[in-house]
Amino acid sequence: MSSASFAGSRARAWLWALLSAAVVVLVDQLAKAAVRDSIVPGETRSVLPGLRLVDSRNKGIAFGFLPGHHWLVTALIVVALVVLLVYFARHSSRPLVWLPTGMLLGGALGNILDRARSGSVTDFVKLPLGWPPFNLADASITIGVLLLLVVVERRE
Question: How far is Cα 106 from Cα 83, in angstroms, rounded to an integer?
């Protein structure tokens, strides 16, 4: 591959990663706004069997871990994003690595926006069996991690 096409593929990977991150942030923020505008905190609405919508506020990270440690949570998120972006910068030519990168970046930014705006993250998807509420940014992060593992482990 010539250096010009290599640089072009890297630029396209960055563009796709940033575009997918922007889509995740947009959809996440619109969904959270709809929940905040239509569901009273503490209220539960059944959508499908086993799937409920709630308006819950999470001051920690995943599943409420580290509540009340705002600066620690922020530092952990920043460190994780820096590691992700360094990895992506070094491996952006790998096929499809832009997708999990965009999903992780978008999910993290969606939750950071909530923390900056209100000091907590709006969670609204409630599954059965005591699973803690989560949001679309959390789902994007979880799926992004799984996809990143697939991309990293995939043979060229």
Answer: 15
Strand 44-48 to 51-58 pairing = antiparallel
Q: Are 94 and 16 in contact (CB under 8 A)?
A: no
- Beta bridge partner(s), residue 122: 57
CA 122 – CA 14 distance, rounded (Å): 29
Instruction: Kindly list the catalytic residues.
Output: 123, 138
Distance CA 92, CA 98 (A): 7
Residues in Cβ contact with 18 at an 8 Å cutoff, skipping those fewer than 6 apart:
102, 105
Based on its alpha-carbon atoms, the radius of gyration of the chain, rounded to whole angstroms, reads: 17
Question: What is the DSSP code string of 41-74?
Answer: TT-EEEEETTEEEEEEEE-SBGGGBSTT-HHHHH
pLDDT digits (tens), the chain, 156 positions: 555 565 678 899 999 999 999 999 999 999 999 999 999 888 899 988 889 999 988 876 655 555 565 677 777 888 989 999 999 999 988 889 999 999 999 999 999 899 889 888 899 999 988 888 999 999 999 999 999 999 988 865
